[in-house]
């Protein structure tokens, strides 16, 4: 058996708060993520328009709020480092039945809306590069093997490559042991549910899907009275927000504007769960085709145009599917994460506690607490 360099493997950069917490407590961590960069639902999308303009979109979570004091302490530290800022702007709703905007005036709210600066993925980027965290991207996990005699985990990549032995594992994918993984990839789930009785909670967690539509316009949508909107009585849209209005976006935006000589304003639209379910029922769980995404984009844009305001046609439009965006249940409310002490395995994420960024952070902190208390004694 080779010497173990990293004591803990963290799978999924969305759990970077867990990785950073472990590293700060003297536990070396290797973080694996199948994506090109960190973030998960807090990732930022970079697109180039036909005329060469760079466009950045927070196409997942537009912002997050905090109510838990432990999470607030973490976010306050991020704020002091310039990783997050409060998004102070007008938020309201639009009733698609009455065609009226409601509560669009800015007012002080009890729950602050935080965004990453200069993008939502800035938080995960910083945490993935904390001292003691070795981050490896474009590296998906094909199998978690428990070596009973060595009391260690062995991780195997999707390509069959041996990735190392680890004393503990943290994983964040709700589909890691679900038949949904097979339906999407055609492969067996990486984690065998029979390895620990606690893992039975992971079997086929119900989810709510969502489509996101990235839009860029040549001029500000000056007649839209709020930078963040929720929609009621819409079969297609659930919310919309203006990317360009977020703090920390203006400097890079101005540089792009000066370089190109052209202004742009960026918006994100999110679909309703019902609409996304209908599309997936027709197109399947596999990666959606360009034709499907184009159809979704056009239907979502028409929903936005139906507000009756003079919204121009965008010069850029692209849809993205979040196939398992939001968990429909919480599987570990009291523990905050699924924990197997014997196997030193923690499963954490918003599906454990609450379906939002705060729930994911709190679950990640709980997983770190379980592991650091156990592994530090080994």
UniProtKB/TrEMBL annotation:
Pfam families: NAD_binding_8 (PF13450). It comes from the Eukaryota. PANTHER family: FAD/NAD(P)-BINDING OXIDOREDUCTASE FAMILY PROTEIN (PTHR16128), FAD_NAD(P)-BINDING OXIDOREDUCTASE FAMILY PROTEIN (PTHR16128:SF5). This is Amine oxidase domain-containing protein. It comes from Gossypium anomalum.
């Amino acid at each position: 058996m080779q010497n173990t360099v990293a004591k803990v493997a963290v799978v999924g950069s969305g759990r970077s708060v867990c990785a950073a917490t472990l590293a700060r407590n003297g536990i070396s961590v290797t973080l694996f993520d199948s994506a090109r960069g960190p973030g998960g639902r807090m990732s930022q999308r970079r697109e180039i328009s036909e005329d060469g303009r760079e466009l950045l979109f927070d196409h997942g979570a537009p912002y997050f709020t905090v109510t838990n004091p432990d999470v607030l302490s973490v976010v306050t530290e991020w704020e002091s480092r310039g990783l997050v800022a409060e998004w102070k702007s007008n938020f309201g709703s639009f009733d698609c039945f009455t065609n009226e905007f409601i509560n669009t005036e800015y007012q002080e709210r009890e729950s602050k809306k935080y965004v990453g600066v200069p993008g939502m993925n800035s938080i995960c980027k910083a945490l993935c590069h904390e001292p003691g965290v070795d981050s490896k991207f474009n590296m998906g996990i094909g199998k978690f093997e428990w070596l009973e005699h060595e009391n260690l985990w062995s991780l195997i990549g999707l390509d069959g490559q041996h990735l190392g032995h680890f004393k503990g594992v943290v994983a964040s994918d709700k589909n890691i042991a679900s038949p949904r993984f097979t339906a999407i990839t055609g492969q067996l789930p990486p984690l065998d549910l029979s390895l620990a009785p606690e893992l039975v909670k992971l079997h086929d967690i119900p989810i709510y899907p969502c489509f996101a539509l990235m839009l860029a316009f040549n001029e500000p949508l000056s007649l839209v009275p709020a930078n963040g909107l929720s929609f009621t009585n819409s079969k297609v849209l659930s919310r919309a927000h203006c990317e360009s209005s977020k703090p920390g976006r203006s400097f890079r935006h101005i540089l792009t504007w000066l370089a190109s000589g052209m202004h742009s304003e960026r918006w994100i639209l999110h679909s309703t769960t019902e609409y996304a379910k209908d599309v997936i029922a027709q197109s399947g769980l596999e990666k959606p085709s360009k034709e499907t995404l184009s159809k979704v984009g056009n239907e979502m844009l028409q929903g936005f145009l139906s507000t009756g305001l003079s919204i121009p046609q965008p010069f850029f439009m692209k849809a993205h599917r979040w196939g398992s965006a939001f968990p429909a249940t919480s599987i570990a409310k009291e523990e905050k994460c699924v924990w197997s002490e014997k196997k030193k395995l923690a499963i954490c994420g918003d599906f454990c506690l609450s379906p939002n960024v705060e729930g994911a952070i709190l679950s990640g902190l709980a997983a770190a607490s379980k592991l650091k208390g156990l592994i530090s004694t080994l």
